[in-house]
Amino acid sequence: MPSKNTPKGYPLDQSPLYRLRGKGQFERVLQVQWAAVDKLLSADNYRVWLNDKGREIQQPLGWLAHVHRRIGKLLARIELPDYVYSKKGRSYADNARQHVGATPLVKTDIHRFYPSVTRAMVYRLFANDFQCAEDVAHRLADICCYQREHLPTGSALSGRVAFFAARHMFDEIAEVAAEEQCKMTTYVDDVTVSGAAATKRLLGTVRRIVSKHGLNTKQRKSRTYAARSAKAVTGAVLVGDELRLPNERHRKIWEAKQAFAKATRKERPRILRTIRGREQEAQQILISTTEK
């Protein structure tokens, strides 16, 4: 069932981005002059750096960031399938909670999801699904993509654009799961399927569907779980009918509290905010399934 907190949206064909046919419509909806797009795409409008995991982050800046937020907000208003849990009103804990119980489970994720969504895929999204004019679809693809190559890893629009660009793939996985009387959910790049038929065979089928659509999964991120085993799903651990906090999250809370005890008076407010944030995040997981 959809969460009570999930905001109402509208169908894709009611979006302001649907069937943009001319420069005037483009400028009105995007709030960007057609002739200014080339300047908008300057490399100077991105900040690029490596995060703690060594992944390159491409973050739009200034005017480009504003335009990306505009597109992201327009896309966020479009209704999504009920299997999607990476949206307002839902959380990664809600996603995991859909799979509680003594039932087999399989999971995988899309490897390097945002960088794997190419400009060509984004163009096809706007040209085919949104039925925009060809020149408009090209402009939208250019704006959305880092250096006209792929979705940026640090943009407000990347999550929604990635989903819609891969929507047919996710729908196909959901259909296969339903045919097997299984439940499928997705949270950004994570795909989880649970049910009596959630076996290695079904996992193989899911991975082949992903590959058919031009994306990749990794063997080490693709797992099967027996019905009564503990199952790790999107930052939570499923044990029977309960969601539990992973050991790694327990450890981080403990480490923050240890650091607080040893911190100077000046350092304590920052560490206290960290502790509170981690405890609030943990509470999303520990809340009883009967309350959801």
TrEMBL record:
Transmembrane segments: none annotated. It holds the Pfam family RVT_1. InterPro entries: Reverse_transcriptase_msDNA (IPR000123), RT_dom (IPR000477). Residues 84-226 form the Reverse transcriptase domain. Keywords: Magnesium, Metal-binding, Nucleotidyltransferase, RNA-directed DNA polymerase, Transferase. GO terms for molecular function: metal ion binding; RNA binding; RNA-directed DNA polymerase activity. The keyword Transcription regulation does not apply. The keyword Transcription does not apply. This is Reverse transcriptase family protein.
